[in-house]
Design brief:
Elements: H1 3-23, H2 28-35, H3 37-48, E1 59-60, E2 75-79, E3 82-89, H4 96-115, E4 129-136, E5 145-149, E6 166-171, H5 178-183, H6 185-200, H7 206-220, H8 224-229, H9 231-267, H10 272-294, H11 300-311
Parallel strand pairs: 3-4, 4-6
Antiparallel strand pairs: 1-2, 2-3, 5-6
Helix pairs in contact: 1-9, 6-7, 7-9, 9-10, 10-11
Length: 312
């Protein structure tokens, strides 16, 4: 097989794999709280000490698609003059404040467009108050709750910043924030389901662990109605999530293989080590070009950053 045909085959595999990752980007947390307004209202009341009962007052505004492939939030909704941005994280990420800043700017732009507001008006334009929350079930952090601030990332600590954004993180691993769980049975049900899966998969295959966990949660009344209605979708989603890291590793290996095949051929005259470095550089360039062809509005800088994240 010629080098071009070999590279084309690898690029086809990469494109297919990346489409599959994007297709399954939403997790179970997103499905539950974007589909179940009652549960979302329950969660808002639990976090804010309020007592809203009318789900029609809640307007979901989650970003379903965006110009940037990676900038897609989990749950967002308007209620009582607030815009509530929720993210679910299974790994610790210190960059959540800047991510929320990007989400919030996008949401405000949508609101301004929908209200046909004029930001150049001499009258102040009202905006919903932001509430930024992360629900964390990873293993790196054990605190019940803590805060992150945008200013934590600012380079010049000697200069007073003119901007700030605060993110509230809640640990939702089993045994944490029990008072929050007691006030929000929907979140409590999610926590029990994930905890069961994590325990059972130590002693049985993943499919059986997920199936058994779903069955037990239904029998015990955790997310019963939701799991009965979305059982097959939940099963497929959870099976994909448990295998996602392995799958993404395979995609990265394909990406490296693609870049190295090109780079080694072009860099042989400089020696094998330099050829591999050239391959890595070329892999990033080729993937970035591919992203920009799929998303014409994607800037070159963002495309390169996304390609580097895949190949890191």
């Amino acid at each position: 097989m010629s080098r071009n045909r070999y590279s084309r085959s690898l690029l086809d595999r990469l494109s297919s794999g990346l489409r599959n990752i994007r297709k399954h980007k939403d997790n179970l947390f997103c499905l539950i709280f974007n589909e179940e307004k009652e549960g979302l209202l329950e969660l808002y009341n639990a976090l804010n000490g309020s007592s809203y009962t009318n789900v029609n007052e809640l307007q979901i505004v989650t970003i379903k698609s965006a110009l940037y492939i990676t900038y897609k939030n989990d749950v967002a909704y308007l209620l009582g003059g607030t815009i509530n941005l929720y993210e679910h994280q299974s790994t610790y990420n210190p960059n959540m404040p800047v991510r929320f800043l990007i989400y919030l700017a996008t949401e405000y732009q949508k609101i301004i467009d929908e209200r046909d507001s004029n930001i150049y008006s001499s009258r102040i334009m009202p905006l919903p108050t932001p509430k930024c929350v992360v629900f964390y079930n990873g293993k790196e952090k054990d605190d019940d709750s803590y805060e992150m601030r945008l200013s934590d990332a600012f380079e010049n600590k000697d200069t007073a910043a003119d901007a700030e954004l605060t993110v509230h993180i809640y640990n939702i691993n089993n045994g944490h924030n029990q008072s929050l769980m007691d006030k929000c049975p929907t979140l409590d049900g999610y926590v029990h389901l994930i905890d069961k899966i994590n325990r059972y998969k130590r002693n049985m295959n993943v499919r059986r662990a997920v199936e058994l966990s779903i069955e037990e949660c239904i029998d015990e009344g955790y997310l019963e109605k939701f799991l009965r209605r979305h059982r097959s979708e939940v099963l497929g989603m959870l099976l994909f999530d448990t295998e996602r890291k392995k799958y993404e590793r395979a995609i990265r290996e394909d990406a490296r293989e693609y870049g190295l095949a090109e780079g080694l051929a072009e860099g042989r005259a400089k020696g094998r080590a330099e050829g591999r470095a050239e391959g890595q550089r070329l892999a990033i360039t080729k993937l970035a070009d591919h992203y920009m062809s799929e998303k014409p509005g994607l800037s070159k800088e963002d495309a390169i950053a996304l390609a580097e994240s895949i190949l890191k």
